[in-house]
Write a structure and sequence with these properties.
alpha+beta, FecR, Ferrdict_sens_TM, transmembrane, 7-stranded antiparallel beta sheet, single chain
Length: 344
């Protein structure tokens, strides 16, 4: 990639983009490093072009309106203008002319590749028993439950979040032109300015609505979406503040139930409130705080109903309560607490 002393900007930009891509893929060997150093030393324009390519790689959003990006766009437009003018003038193209146009196009294409390959995702997570509050750039407040991961991607047109595991509450900064979406496995919640929580369980996605309105949709792997709730004005269950949507992520089953808003937020202080929850769901939630993970070894006990308030970190009290009310027995094994059916 050693270049002559004088080149046009498009060739230098193309080479700078290629070096940026190669460096991003891993370390250069000795010969490649010497080649890169020689290329940088050949011309000050090379160093400048490389710095611009690195800036684009690390944050296109931050430099979208800088002179460098404006120049890239202008060069692309100028290349198209020249190509069209020559086409309609029926002038004879030399191989050199085609070569320069191709080089300019390749430079623009490489810059576009850098733009597309750059993933502006930010990930926030908590460990076992840990809780965390995050303020996003748009003013949205995200409260993460224990053992939770939320990925965030924001641009000028959208705010895309993904709940990878656990549970989080979203107090969404209002922006009607830039909806906020939360994808949880294959269920998508859309809002523009409201307050709600999303929880991911083994077979379910749950949404508790605290303020405003949200739309909840099923999203297939190819990105196609369909609503899973009646649209406004049509008969059927409606998710309103103070209610909870419980949607299966493996079937079409969806239902809405009233919920105690204040008790539903007790997890923010480390307390877990169960009001007629299946044991399988209660165990999922307890395991976000439990150092010794609870395991249900017999499916017959997964549907037993659990009521009460427990400290998330106190798995022993939870197990004691469950075993006292239901035919369940517990044993410790390999750092886990195994729950199984206890015959009469």
């Amino acid at each position: 990639m050693t270049a002559p002393a004088h080149q046009d900007h498009s060739q230098i930009d193309e080479q700078a983009a290629l070096w940026c891509l190669r460096l991003s893929e891993g370390r250069l060997d000795t010969d490649e490093r010497c080649e890169f150093d020689a290329w940088i030393a050949t011309d000050d324009a090379h160093a400048m072009a490389f710095e611009e390519a690195v800036a684009i790689w690390h944050g296109v959003e931050d430099v979208a309106d800088t002179p460098e990006m404006i120049r890239y766009r202008a060069e692309a437009v100028e290349s198209l203008r020249r190509a069209n003018a020559r086409r309609w003038a029926r002038t004879h193209w030399s191989m050199g002319g085609w070569g320069r146009a191709a080089a300019a196009f390749a430079a623009v294409l490489l810059v576009a590749m850098v733009y597309l390959l750059h993933d502006p995702m930010t990930s926030y997570s908590t460990g076992t028993g840990e809780r965390r509050v995050v303020m996003l750039d748009d003013g949205t407040r995200v409260t993460l439950d224990a053992a939770t991961q939320v990925n965030v991607r924001m641009d000028h047109n959208s705010r895309r979040l993904e709940l990878v595991s656990g549970r989080a509450k979203f107090d969404v900064a209002h922006d009607a032109m830039r909806p906020l979406s939360v994808l949880a496995r294959n269920r998508l919640t859309l809002a523009t300015g409201t307050s709600f929580s999303v929880e991911l369980l083994a077979e379910q996605m749950r949404v508790v609505l605290y303020e405003g309105r949200v739309e909840v949709m099923a999203q297939a792997k190819d990105g196609t979406r369909r609503t899973i709730l009646p649209v406004a004005g049509q008969p059927g269950p409606t998710l309103v503040p103070g209610s909870e949507l419980i949607a299966s992520t493996s079937a079409a089953t969806t239902r809405i139930a009233p919920t105690d808003v204040s008790r539903s937020l007790s997890w923010e202080s480390g307390q877990l409130t169960f009001d007629g929850e299946p044991l399988a769901v209660a165990v999922d939630r307890m395991n976000r705080d439990a150092r010794e993970k609870l395991v249900i070894s017999d499916p017959r006990i997964g549907a037993y109903v659990v009521n009460g308030v427990f400290l998330g970190a106190d798995a022993d009290a939870f197990v004691e309560g469950v075993c006292a009310l239901h035919p369940v027995q517990a044993r410790r094994e390999d750092g886990r607490i195994i729950l199984s059916y206890r015959a009469a």
